[in-house]
Amino acid sequence: MTGTLLTTTTHQRDDRLIVHVDGEVDLGSAPRLTAALDSAIAAAAAATAVPKAIVADLTSVTFLASAGLAALVESDDQCRARGISFVVVLAPDGPARRALEITGLLTVLTVTDTVEQALAHQP
Questions:
Q1: How far apart are the C-alpha atoms of 61 and 20, rounded to whole Å?
Q2: Which pTM value belongs to this model?
Q3: Quick check: is 94 in a domain?
Q4: Nearest to residue 68, comparing CAs of 24, 9, 112?
Q5: What burial class does residue 8 get, using C-beta atoms within 10 Å of its C-beta: 0-12 exposed, 13-18 middle, 19+ buried?
Q6: Is 25 in contact with 61 (CB distance < 8 Å)?
Q7: Of 6, 25, 30, 81, which cross-links 67 as Cys (Cβ 3.0–4.6 Å)?
Q8: The domain containing residue 75 runs over which residues?
Q9: Within a domain: 45
Q10: Which superkingdom, per the lineage (predicted)?
């Protein structure tokens, strides 16, 4: 699989940056996810007031390999170090949620079912 199977888009909504991820996150495409999250973290860290939260919307992810899981954990660590909230949105029955369940990351990362829930989340 190649990185062409993954797209990311980032937009701001209120005081949150939302990184929408669509497709397969595997070894070849994980650097694209990492770059999108790193860019959002840098923007949030540089902001004086807003945004101070990042929402990673993975509801459209159809496959999530260990490289993608590592990118999420690293982003969460970077956000915590900078005082930025990091919330991952996963479809309730989606493959990305299953990957986090299997690895135990559902108890490590802040996870919601919808972007609306993530936007309402207060750290």
A1: 9
A2: 0.91
A3: yes
A4: 24
A5: buried
A6: yes
A7: 30
A8: 3-112
A9: yes
A10: Bacteria
